[in-house]
Amino acid sequence: MEKNPLEALEAIKKESAIAIASIKDRLSLNEVRNRFLSKKSELSAIMGMMKDIPNEMKASFGKSVNELRKYIETKVKEKEDEFALKELNEKLEKEKIDITLPGRSYERGKINPYYAIVDEISEIFLSLGFEVVEGDDITDDKFNFELLNIPEDHPARDMQDTFYISQNILLRTQTSGAQAHKMIDNSSKNELKPIKMICPGKCYRRDDDDATHSHQFGQIEGLVVDKGISLADLKGTLELFVKRLFGEKREIRLRSSYFPFTEPSVEVDVSCSHCGGKGCSMCKGTGYIEILGAGEVNPKVLEMCGYDPKIYSGFAFGVGIDRLAILKYGIDDIRRIYTNDVRFLKDFEGK
Ligand SMILES: [Zn+2]
């Protein structure tokens, strides 16, 4: 027998009250919502029974059904808000940051004196219109020796014994190879442009490491090639470089020397910053400290690299980066530069 609509409504009221009271989580909440509020719910079906209700009672019956629906909706909403708040609190609790803990500090690295001085020297030469080229650490016999006028039987090779990767491939003993590359690049394209370049980089030699020697060291080589370049241009450039790096009061002195890739060749000394040239233990009583080797580019080197020495001339120089850093910053042991001891780097900072 079909249920009386009024009785059915009463039954839903009771069942929904029990169901609402037993909501514990989102799952049971959804069950209540589906059971009492969906289109297929008993509460929706009950409206279809309206035809069985006497006319005078239709309005109040409809009102009761709507009130019950509203009541269930409100309760479901209340529970839903309650769960949402609870979930939010749990999430906040889980992600809570303990602001009483001390923060983690990140130590910043310090610039190594090697790179500090490379930057400084590069800036000086850039301001004179030089180009900075790094070159390759691994090169071959041709670029490291032959093109620099050091053939296979040359005694200079003994002084530059290096690390060989194969018979022909080696770690460079000087950065001059980059200069030969530059000249050959230009001459092979038939663009004999003037060259003004420096090449800072690491070089390698088979040396036993001690306070003044290292198997790995930094070198900056410079090359200028153009028409009418003389030793006077070399002296002027180096004088300016030394004064910018060590101070206006420093003087340079050129002494005759020998290198295979320059002719004539000179050793360049800088007046001692410690005694101002009077003579002290730092300069071994001479008033000067040797800093670099230089000279006019050997015509044979120009020729091998495609520049006609009857038209072009040039000068070249090579200076040890570590040596300059030692002199400028007063570092007592060359090994400090590459052992990367943060205590040393901290001491160096601000010099
Ligand atoms: Zn001195």
Question: Would you write up a description of this structure?
Answer:
The chain is built from 13 helices and nine strands. The radius of gyration is 44 Å and the shape is elongated. The relative contact order is 0.10. It is 43% helix and 19% strand. It folds into two domains: 90 residues; 236 residues, Bira Bifunctional Protein, Domain 2 (BirA Bifunctional Protein, domain 2). A hairpin with a 2-residue loop joins strand 6 and strand 7. With 351 residues, it is an alpha+beta fold. Helix 5 crosses helix 11. The longest helix has 40 residues. The N and C termini lie far apart (103 Å). The strands form two sheets. The chain has a seven-stranded mixed β-sheet with strand order 1-4-5-9-8-7-6, sandwiched between helices. Strands 2-3 form a two-stranded antiparallel ribbon.
